[in-house]
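Q&A log
Question type: sequence-to-structure
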Amino acid sequence: MKYNIRTLIALLRHHNRTDVWRMLDYADEHNLHLSSAKELYEIANIAEDNRMLSKSRKFKLPITDFESAIYDADISIDTCYRQGIKIVSYFDVDNYPQQLLDLEHKGYNDAPLILYYKGDIRTVGNVEGIAIIGTRHPTPEGEKMGEYFGRKFAEMGLNIVSGLALGCDAAAHRGALSANGITTAFLPNGLDIIRPSQNADLASKILSSGGALVSEYPPGTPNTHDNYAERDRLQAGLADATLLIQSDIKKGGSFNAIRTSLENGKPVFAVKYTGSLLGHPMVAGNELLIREGKAKPLTQGDEENVILEIEKSLGNL
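Response status: OK
Response body:
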């Protein structure tokens, strides 16, 4: 393996994902080996001196910080082992989800360097999938739509990807499970704790059904606002299409996943509502995306059109 998991965890201890990618690219170009604290300290200094970092520091980190980072990485790996959490890196070509390898943002590699997971990541990473996302506070109709499409697409063999949140996410997972299908949940925190706690039983059912719980973060990491946004991009990254169940405009975190889908050339769909829900604030995000042509409208019975769009985007038609 090109870079071991210990090295990557240690680098991510003090630098964000984008900066670590820049360091690794530089190391590749200059044939540098990265494993010891001294080598990590040196590449960090090179990155600082050459203004490669997205956020410059007022002072350089001492080598002791990298010694501590490696020590912490070993502790984190041991913690994962004891808690049944597995780890895979971008450089583990046999196990890393293929769909995430080419994830980009603004023309740069935006794939996670490390994924922590429970369950069968090889299966969920090698089948076509759809991210089903939406608000935590859907209308009763939105809740029904989440379960309906989760069930329908699972019956059609797709991996149902979502975020285990209350509302639309949980509905999509439940729909997939009701069809005995595969479903994957991305969490914005470490896998040592299930948040929200109300969905702990749902998380267990996802694993027992052959799905997976996945996170970019080691055990002990809380679910911060930034982590939610980062999690959203991974849902879109693993899936081959994204479906918005319901979202308003002002608070719609689902738009993070939709932006990732569009930027990476993946089809986006939004449930189209009529009747009493037409113009409802909780479907304003759906209506906006459809009106702007960023999402194709979807209603019950049109599931085959989604499959056709996925196959087209994958070059299978």
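Response note: The mean pLDDT is 94.
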